Task: inverse folding
């Protein structure tokens, strides 16, 4: 071990000790003082009720499958539609001008309206026009509401990705005789998509949570199931259970997105 | 008839005239070097020749056909004229081999199988046979620039344009790239270079043009232009450049 | 004689205002001394409260609330109305109401977290069907194949699962209006409500819908009984209960029900 290495090892050990001590102190404060508050017992019974949790958790997990199902078909649709909208907004040919207007209007409208409103309007509104079953299913139209809203955001991220590809890449590709369309498909898009993967990961995480908004129009996914249990038991613990399930999924996903983000920063510097 | 002829080419960016009525003839198999200070219009002139920039006025003849005609589809022209850039501009998401095969596949509609021997041959000739499967960020600057040249050559261009292709390289890597140019000259490639490498220009060029403020001030064989420049501007530039 | 009169006057005085200090049941037990704060839903629906205006005393629950308040010794002007959601009603911590009346079904699980009064109404569950399904037979077999909906916050959810056992998963909603929207969009054929709500929805909200059957309240082990909700351990509970007992014995509660809730005898019973 070199002199420098010895010194650094010592420093690391020291900061580790400090971090551990301060963390322990904070946790101890919470564990000791929160239960001393006058309302703690009631809060514990209402939010952290072991018996209620044990009773409802398996059924909440079951309901979470609905979330995963809705997510599994919405996410690919969002990726495709988002990309198409992004391309429509960058369309240069005058014949495609209506497409550009459409793309711009689309992103403005769906980014501007709260998701829950879109879910209500599309989820109840379109089936109300008189579609036959099963085409009036809230799963279909609720998912469409999510897809439209998220596509608007995802499209903007794709656009920023397209803009992030340096002009010289286009020049090089054009100089080889490629058409504008080929340049976009073979040269710009692959790089653009790679550049925005971390941001899109964050959109996926947000989508995973917003799938629960479909509960407002009928599907009994985890949030509604937790609400039912809450009503029956007059206890909020099922919501805590649902939160735990969400965290089990989203924390690793968030960490992974952060990792990708950090990696990208490193690669660029 | 010259392979490539420019007549009165004008290029403006807003109020700024970057090429101000340029005449130039490049014969088949000739190597022409454009020299001059940064901002003299060398790079823009090259970009005009392969239509990356639309010219305001003047004509550019390739085999006698005016390719500066407004409204002409530039793709077919660019497929015949190769260009290599100062900053390499390799596609970072493709291997060296994929970089070189993309355009012939897309533009000429050739299959990978049909192409692979021919392109591999180029890599071998330029000493990069063992680098074909590498991605650009795994290659040195000199290697990347050589891949960029191979990429352009894979289109079997009739004319090659080189835009200060050694300027971004470490000095010890410049030689390997210039060697490639000499090989191409030997094979009879028609080439136009914008360059700061005065030694190379003097040694290898058939004709040297000195540009200032968007005009060709003086042109001639290298010995004449370097050893006995006629114009004061040329003398002043060379005095600074060769110092 | 004069003496007797003054005594009577004193007694009267005691029962109106001063009585509170002198050992009246609700004394010192309400949020604001001398006032009874009652919460109801936001909005409150017909036929429980008319026109979302409980102050009028019109509608079944509004009338019950004033009757109970009167029985406890509060004048009508001493009743203060507030609004609360279900979540506000069950959250731990101080409440902004003394009692909360909005069709809360009494259950053992809920009783662990909050207190309920004696029941003031026993609600039969009833089946409301969409205009497309009005010819459905009121039998469990026929009902089972319908596409079901219910309000997620009511005891209709377990009843649906345990008694009707539909063949496809029911859809659940947060609000009557949403059930209505789903029925209009033909996303559900039937919904389970307490009978008065079902009758109201069919008559007023969802054109062409129909209440095709009810489950007799006493036919199940756990009939839906509505109670007034109070904070767990609220000392007011015994006063409220006493008032409800008195109202039941005097027949006043039955009279209120007859006034405000539709005659429910026309709806056929569903056997199960």
Result:
């Amino acid at each position: 071990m070199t002199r420098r290495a010895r010194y650094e090892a010592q420093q690391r050990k020291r900061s580790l000790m400090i971090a551990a001590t301060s963390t322990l102190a904070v946790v101890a404060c919470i564990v000791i003082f929160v239960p001393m508050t006058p309302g703690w017992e009631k809060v514990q019974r209402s939010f952290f009720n072991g018996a209620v949790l044990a009773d409802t958790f398996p059924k909440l997990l079951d309901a979470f499958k609905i979330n995963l199902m809705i997510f599994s078909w919405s996410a690919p649709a969002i990726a495709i539609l988002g990309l198409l909208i992004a391309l429509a907004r960058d369309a240069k040919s005058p014949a495609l001008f209506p497409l550009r207007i459409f793309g711009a209007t689309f992103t403005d409208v769906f980014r501007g309206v709260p998701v829950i409103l879109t879910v209500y309007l599309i989820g109840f509104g379109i089936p109300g026009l008189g579609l036959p079953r099963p085409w009036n299913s809230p799963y279909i139209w609720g998912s469409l509401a999510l897809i439209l809203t998220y596509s608007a955001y995802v499209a903007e991220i794709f656009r920023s990705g397209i803009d992030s590809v340096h002009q010289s890449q286009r020049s090089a590709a054009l100089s080889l005789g490629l058409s504008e369309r080929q340049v976009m498909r073979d040269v710009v898009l692959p790089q653009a998509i790679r550049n925005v993967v971390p941001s899109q990961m964050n959109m996926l995480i947000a989508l995973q949570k917003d799938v629960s908004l479909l509960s407002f129009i009928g599907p009994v996914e985890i949030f509604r199931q937790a609400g039912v249990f809450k009503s029956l038991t007059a206890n909020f613990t099922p919501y805590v259970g649902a939160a735990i399930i969400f965290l089990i999924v989203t924390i690793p996903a968030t960490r992974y997105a952060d990792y990708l983000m950090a990696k990208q920063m490193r690669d660029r510097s | 008839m010259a392979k490539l002829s420019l007549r009165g080419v004008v290029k403006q960016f807003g109020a700024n005239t970057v090429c101000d009525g340029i005449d130039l003839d490049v014969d088949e198999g000739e190597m022409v070097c454009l020299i001059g200070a940064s901002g003299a219009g060398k790079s823009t002139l090259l970009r005009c020749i392969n239509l990356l920039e639309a010219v305001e006025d003047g004509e550019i003849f390739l085999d006698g056909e005016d390719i500066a005609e407004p409204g002409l589809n530039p793709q077919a022209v660019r497929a015949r004229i190769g260009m290599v850039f100062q900053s390499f501009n390799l596609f970072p998401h493709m291997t060296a081999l994929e970089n070189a095969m993309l355009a012939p596949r897309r533009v000429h509609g050739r299959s990978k199988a049909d192409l692979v021997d021919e392109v591999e041959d180029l890599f071998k000739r330029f000493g990069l046979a063992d680098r074909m499967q590498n991605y650009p960020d795994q290659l040195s600057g000199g290697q990347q620039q050589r891949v960029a040249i191979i990429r352009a050559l894979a289109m079997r261009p009739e004319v090659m344009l080189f835009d200060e292709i050694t300027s971004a390289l470490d000095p010890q890597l410049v030689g390997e790239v210039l060697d490639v140019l000499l090989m191409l000259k030997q094979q009879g490639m028609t080439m136009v270079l914008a360059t700061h490498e005065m030694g190379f220009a003097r040694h290898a060029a058939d004709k040297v043009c000195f540009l200032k403020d968007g005009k060709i001030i003086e042109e001639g064989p290298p010995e004449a232009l370097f050893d006995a420049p006629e114009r004061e501007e040329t003398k002043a530039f060379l005095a600074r450049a060769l110092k | 004689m004069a003496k007797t009169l003054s005594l009577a006057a004193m007694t009267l005085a005691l029962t109106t205002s001063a009585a509170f200090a002198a050992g009246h049941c609700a004394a010192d037990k309400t949020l604001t001394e001398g006032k009874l704060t009652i919460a109801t839903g936001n909005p409150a629906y017909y036929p429980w409260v008319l026109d979302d205006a409980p102050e009028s005393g019109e509608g079944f629950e509004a009338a019950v609330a004033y009757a109970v308040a009167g029985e406890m010794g509060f004048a009508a002007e001493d009743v203060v109305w507030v609004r609360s959601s279900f979540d506000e009603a069950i959250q731990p911590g101080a409440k902004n109401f003394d009692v909360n009346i909005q069709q809360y079904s009494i259950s053992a699980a809920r009783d662990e977290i909050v207190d309920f009064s004696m029941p003031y109404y026993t609600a039969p569950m009833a089946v409301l069907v969409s205009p497309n399904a009005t010819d459905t037979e009121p039998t469990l077999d026929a009902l089972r194949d319908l596409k079901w909906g219910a309000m997620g916050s009511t005891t209709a959810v377990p009843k649906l699962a345990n008694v009707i056992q539909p063949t496809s998963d029911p859809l659940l909603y947060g609000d009557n209006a949403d059930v209505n929207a789903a029925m209009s969009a033909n996303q559900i054929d039937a919904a389970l409500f307490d009978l008065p709500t079902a009758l109201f929805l069919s008559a007023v909200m969802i054109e062409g819908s129909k209440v095709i059957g009810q489950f007799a309240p006493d036919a199940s082990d756990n009939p839906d009984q509505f109670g007034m909700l109070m904070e767990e351990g609220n000392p007011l509970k015994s006063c409220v209960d006493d008032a409800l007992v008195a109202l039941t014995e005097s027949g006043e509660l039955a009279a209120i029900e007859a006034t405000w809730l539709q005659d429910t005898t026309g709806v056929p019973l569903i056997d199960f």
